[in-house]
Specification:
- The two termini are 109 Å apart.
- With 1062 residues, the protein is mainly alpha-helical.
- The longest helix is centred in the first third of the chain and has 67 residues.
- It is built from 37 helices and 2 strands.
- Among the domains are: 63 residues, no CATH class; 77 residues, no CATH class; 153 residues; 288 residues, no CATH class.
Length: 1062
């Protein structure tokens, strides 16, 4: 941009701007040097041309200057005219001021002549104004009682208190004290002070317990029946309660709140008045001033502020407290409580009110709890009557409820021998289904206590608000010097502890917790002595802080009630803790002389309801602790939570351990505890609900363990102790299971083989071990190197077992009932192990969920869970031992029968129509035992138990040839017939692979059919199938004598030569 761009050039002469743009900006430099331009022109070839260019540029500049002058010429003229007008106005002002000075001097001269007369008139005006003010005050005071009564009837208590205080102050002013007509007014105001005090106290009392018009919640159990609607604020209407006269429209006295407490404004105690502002005069038109204040100032906020004035302050005089309430964001009921306390402060009745609140606190709480329980009972009865009508089909409602509880609490089981399994489980449990961790009594107790404690929390919230206000007022009043004019009817104590009349947040919390504790004692059926002593221990801390009995304003009775437990603490000094630990009874005849009637709501009462009480008490304690001021923070740690925790620790847990230990002992010592179920279903089912035949003793133990861990989930803080109880019970049950196992296998060869390291190692490597039980959710499959290695392991194990021949019958388990017991015991142990693992997975999650965000209530750790997991491993290991014993037992049973082949001669003279007797006996035994075990073990376990028979029978049959001297064609057919019978028996077991059985026994038949081949054909077969059998097995084919078959002397050498090339 150029320096000439800002010139005002009209649009029709825009060409001048272009011409200016061609002019070099050096011509406009601050220090112009003409020498370079002169030299350039003189040295130029076309001097005339250069001069002409300069001439043209000069013309352009002159044109631009003309345009600028033309544009600004009018402005210059107007400015000159304005300056002329200003100069003229200054000259006229100087002349006017001079005239004014002359007039003022003349006025001063004339007023000085009448100065004394004006002073007399002013003094007379002041005197008349004072007389008028006194008459106005007398007239206003005479109407005050009626106005106060009207405000009281309209529940405008704060306005009434303001009017009373202002009237009392004015009656004490000099000039009105000697008016005889006001004596009656003084007496009426004294009476109205008491009436107003009791009205305010009653309304405060109602709102303290959520029974007032502005309470936030209803105090009834069911909001639909007894809900108290709350009142919302309405727009402020500036209506005066009394008609006012012109004389009373003077400036009101400045009375208000300073730092939250009422303090009088500037009140002149003398009789003289300095001008027309009469401080302390009654203001009948206070609302007019309020309206002016609302409508003045910033009009944007006036409408919003007016909507925040509550109904109960509608007729009050605006002061600091009213402004505070208007600007406060507190709930409506809190504002109302603040107003009531402020009224008590204005009336100087804080001590009396505190004493009366203390006096009525306990009976009121008792009445509220009793009424809520009564309403809850009526609601339950009405609901139950509808259920009774629906279920009245020949059985009583009690039996119906019990049936529902049993079906809910216990798995559905078919009746066995006329006795319900659910009934057997109920018999071993120390608690009824109603009192179980998830029973209806627990749910009812928790619901009832939740409701009552929630009500108590809301009540305590109000007490915290009122308590803090009263304490703050008392501290401020104790630090403020009371004016002499307020000395009448003021009996407040100088000490701050005495100003509140004994009322404090700590006192209210102690009484509330004491009443809740009494209710809990009734629910738990505990004796009242320990509760009283415990309450005495709690209130004794406050007893030392109670002021001595002095003259108080209606507070003596309140203090007597507030520490009524002090007598109990004096009668049994230093025994509170002992009574807490010793004064409990599970079946106390009378819970309290003044009960709450909780028996009408709860199906049962007793010690075990402490589990349902624990969680509501913790939530109650947390809520109370969050509301307590810092100075009372220590009170949240003591009280109801400590009482319940001590009760659980000192009474519930020991009783629970004894009761459940007795139940465990009864469950495992019963004759039917380890007796397999008679008439079990034909097929096995893995679902306990559909009839899984778990031993009754172990099923009962599992039920008790789940029940105890249910208590642990209800009381997470004591979960570690309860888990230890479960560990103790599981340990005793494991010992009993081990005893039953040993009774079945003691001194039997199968059990002794289990102790051999080589046998145990081979069974662990056996491919069939994949059928054994594994941890919940895990596979027991093992990585097997190859089929050859698997066959080698199976062959080696078979060789070890065959080397045990001859097997004696007395070393075998001949009693089928013991085998069935082992099968049922294995399945039952596996069921308990899986159940324990589920409990291990569920228990930590439950404790973390319940106590999330509250680490101070949790004492559980991961070590108990690991201990329970170790018990699951032990149970599963014993279950595996049972299956291994059954597998080895069936293998030994097979060897016991098949060993007769070694002593029998197979030189038959006819075709085999039936298998040998020992094979018939073996197959019959296999079929019978499979049928007896089928309902008690899963198919995969049956495969493991009977799956080893085929291999042992095949190896025993092939190795039996080495002990035979001769065999004929019919003998070979007899052996093949035996293998077919055995194959049919094993194939009848559904869980066994029939193709594998057929393949193994076909191998036996192929081996014996080789005896029917001539020698040369046998050599050809060996050459083609040299790996089908071992060298020893091929040699045994040559050793045995077969009628009609010729074997050369070097037959074995030729066979060895053939096999050496493999």
């Amino acid at each position: 941009m150029g320096i000439f761009d800002g010139f005002p050039i009209p649009p029709d002469k825009e060409y001048l701007r272009d011409e200016l743009a061609r002019i070099d900006e050096n011509w406009a430099a601050a220090r112009f040097d003409s020498l370079p331009h002169v030299v350039r022109i003189l040295t130029s070839k076309d001097r005339e041309g250069e001069l002409r260019i300069l001439k043209d540029q000069s013309d352009v500049v002159e044109d631009v200057v003309d345009e600028v002058v033309h544009a600004y010429h009018g402005g210059f003229n107007k400015a000159i005219q304005n300056y002329s007008q200003i100069l003229r106005l200054f000259s006229e002002s100087a002349e006017s001021i001079g005239d004014l000075k002359v007039d003022l001097a003349e006025a001063k001269r004339r007023l000085g002549a009448r100065n004394k007369q004006l002073h007399q008139l002013w003094y007379r005006s002041v005197t008349l104004r004072h007389i008028i003010s006194l008459l106005d005050q007398i007239e206003g005071i005479s109407k005050v009682p009626a106005r106060i009564e009207k405000l009281i009837s309209e529940k405008q208590y704060y306005a009434a208190a303001q009017l009373h205080v202002q009237s009392a102050l004015m009656l004490e002013r000099e000039g009105l004290q000697t008016v005889g007509a006001l004596q009656d007014v003084r007496s009426e105001l004294t009476k109205l002070r008491g009436v107003l005090f009791f009205k305010v106290l009653e309304d405060l009392h109602a709102h303290l317990y959520n029974k007032g018009e502005y309470s936030s919640v209803s105090s009834s159990m069911h909001d639909n029946d007894d809900e108290v609607p709350t009142t919302t604020a309405v727009a402020f209407a500036a209506n005066s309660s009394q008609p006012v006269s012109r004389r009373t429209r003077s400036v009101k006295g400045d009375h208000g709140l300073v730092d939250g407490s009422y303090r009088p404004g500037s009140i002149d105690g003398g009789s003289s008045f300095d001008g027309p502002d009469d401080d302390g005069s009654l203001d009948d038109n206070a609302l007019d001033g309020h309206a002016v204040r609302l409508n003045g100032g910033d009009g944007k906020d006036a409408k919003i502020v007016s909507c925040q004035i509550p109904l109960w302050l509608m007729n009050s005089t605006p002061d600091e407290f009213v402004e505070t309430i208007k600007k406060s964001d507190a709930p409506l009921h809190v504002k109302y409580l603040q107003t009531m306390v402020e009224c008590l402060c204005l009336l100087n009745k804080v001590a009396a009110a505190g004493a009366m609140i203390c006096q009525r606190l306990r009976p009121t709480i008792h009445e509220i709890i009793t009424s809520r329980i009564k309403v809850h009972s009526e609601f339950i009865n009405s609901s139950r009557s509808g259920i009774d009508k629906a279920t009245r089909t020949g059985t009583s409602s009690l039996h119906f409820v019990k049936g529902q509880l049993e079906s809910f609490q216990l798995p559905k089981q078919k009746r066995q021998n006329g006795i319900s399994l659910a009934g057997a489980l109920l018999a071993v449990s120390p608690v009824s289904p109603v009192m179980a961790p998830k029973g209806k009594a627990q749910a009812a107790a928790k619901e009832l206590l939740d409701s009552i404690l929630d009500c108590v929390v809301r009540i305590f919230e109000n007490h915290v608000v009122v308590g803090e206000l009263i304490e703050s007022k008392s501290s401020l009043q104790s630090d403020t010097n009371t004016p002499k004019s307020m000395s009448i009817d003021v009996n407040l104590d100088s000490e701050a502890s005495q100003v509140t009349g004994g009322y404090s947040i700590g006192f209210s919390l102690t009484v509330l917790q004491s009443e809740c504790q009494q209710l809990i004692c009734e629910i738990l059926r505990a004796t009242p002595e320990a509760a009283s002593a415990d309450a005495a221990v709690q209130t004794a801390r406050l007893a030392s802080k109670v002021p001595t009995k002095e003259k108080r304003d209606e507070s003596e009775d309140g203090l007597t009630f507030a520490f009524r437990f002090t007598d109990a603490s004096i009668s049994v000094p230093n025994q509170g803790v002992d009574l807490i630990r010793q004064g409990w009874s599970r079946k106390g005849p009378n819970v309290s002389q003044e009960g709450y009637g909780s028996a009408a709501v709860l199906p049962e009462q007793g010690l075990y309801l402490a589990a349902s009480i624990y969680r509501p008490v913790l939530e109650f304690t947390d809520k109370v602790a969050s509301m307590l001021p810092k100075k009372y923070a220590q009170l949240g740690n003591d009280g109801l939570q400590a009482f319940v925790e001590n009760f659980v620790k000192d009474h519930l847990l020991p009783t629970m351990f004894v009761d459940y230990r007795k139940g465990v002992q009864q469950a495992i010592s019963s004759p039917a505890a380890f007796r397999p179920r008679a008439h079990a279903s034909v097929s096995y089912t893995s679902s306990i609900e559909k009839g899984r035949p778990v031993l009754q003793g172990l099923l009962a133990i599992d039920f008790l363990a789940k029940e105890v861990l249910g208590w642990a989930q209800a009381m997470p803080k004591f979960a570690a102790d309860l888990v230890k109880y479960v560990q103790t019970f599981l340990e005793r049950t494991y010992e009993r299971c081990r005893t039953s196992y040993m009774e079945a296998v003691l001194e039997k060869q199968s059990y002794m083989l289990m102790g051999r390291h080589d046998i145990e190692k081979l069974m662990r490597l056996d491919p069939a071990s994949v059928c054994l039980p594994s941890s919940l959710g895990q596979s027991n499959a093992k990585s097997i190197a190859s089929d050859a290695e698997s066959i080698e392991v199976e062959s080696e194990l078979s060789e070890l077992l065959l080397n045990l021949r001859p097997i004696r019958q007395e070393n075998l388990i001949r009693d089928d009932n013991k085998l069935v017991l082992l099968a049922s015991l294995s399945d039952s142990l596996e069921y308990v192990a899986d159940s324990i693992e589920r409990l291990v997975q569920a228990t930590p999650q439950a404790s973390n969920h319940v106590e999330s965000g509250k680490p101070n209530h949790t004492r559980t750790s991961s070590s108990p869970a690991r201990d329970l997991a170790s018990f699951a491993d032990e149970y599963r290991k014993l279950a595996i031992d049972c299956l291994k014993v059954l597998r080895v037992e069936m293998q030994l049973e097979t060897i016991f029968h098949m060993q007769e082949m070694t002593v029998r001669e197979y030189l038959e003279n006819q075709d085999a129509e039936e298998p040998d007797d020992f094979v018939i006996s073996l197959t019959a035994q296999i079929t019978r035992r499979d049928e007896e075990m089928a309902p008690f073990v899963a198919g995969v376990k049956r495969n493991y138990i009977f799956g080893g028979i085929c291999g042992i029978a095949a190896n025993a049959s092939i190795k039996a040839l080495a002990n035979m001297k001769s065999i004929n064609l019919f003998g070979v057919q007899q052996i093949c017939r035996n293998s077919i019978a055995l194959e049919q028996a094993l194939a009848a077991i559904p869980s066994i692979d029939s193709e594998a059985v057929q393949q193994r026994l076909d191998h036996v038949r192929t081996y014996y059919e080789l005896l029917n081949m001539p020698y040369e054909a046998l050599l050809a077969f060996i050459t083609e199938h040299e790996h089908l059998f071992t060298a020893a097995e091929y040699v045994n084919l040559l050793k045995v004598q077969v009628p009609g078959r010729e074997i050369p002397p070097d037959a074995q050498d030729r066979v060895s030569e053939i096999l050496s090339h493999r």
